[in-house]
UniProtKB/TrEMBL annotation:
Annotated SUPFAM superfamilies: F1F0 ATP synthase subunit C
Keyword annotations from UniProtKB, A to Z: ATP synthesis, Cell membrane, CF(0), Hydrogen ion transport, Hydrolase, Ion transport, Lipid-binding, Membrane, Transmembrane, Transmembrane helix, Transport
Pfam family of the protein (one): ATP-synt_C
Major localization class: membrane
PROSITE patterns: ATPASE_C
Entry's transmembrane regions: 12-36, 48-73
Listed name of the protein: ATP synthase subunit c
InterPro entries listed in its UniProt record: ATP_synth_F0_csu, ATP_synth_F0_csu_DDCD_BS, ATP_synth_F0_csu_sf, ATPase_proteolipid_c-like_dom, F/V-ATP_Csub_sf
Organism the protein comes from: Magnetospirillum molischianum DSM 120
Site residues by UniProt (Reversibly protonated during proton transport): 58
Membership in a protein family: Belongs to the ATPase C chain family.
Lineage, opening ranks: Bacteria, Pseudomonadati, Pseudomonadota, Alphaproteobacteria, Rhodospirillales
Length: 74
């Protein structure tokens, strides 16, 4: 195995974090929809927390992408 193929394998393994982030984002929004469906008056209380959870979860995907690109192009 040469160096280039090892870089591609490493970048692919580093990008696995994007899968978990996708599951997390889906979980955040499904929880928000379920909560608002049960109690519509609670929307103003829980919507901010959903956006914060979305941003933090999406940041994990961006970090995984950056690490993957650093492995590929270094």
């Amino acid at each position: 195995m040469d160096y280039e193929s090892a870089k591609v394998i490493g970048a692919g393994l580093a990008a696995i974090g994007v899968i978990g982030s996708g599951v997390g984002v889906g979980s955040v929004w499904s929880s928000l929809i379920a909560t608002v469906g049960r109690n519509p008056s609670a929307k103003s209380n829980v919507e901010l927390y959903a956006w914060i959870g979305f941003a933090v979860t999406e940041a994990i995907a961006l970090f995984a992408l950056v690490i993957s690109l650093m492995i590929l192009f270094k």
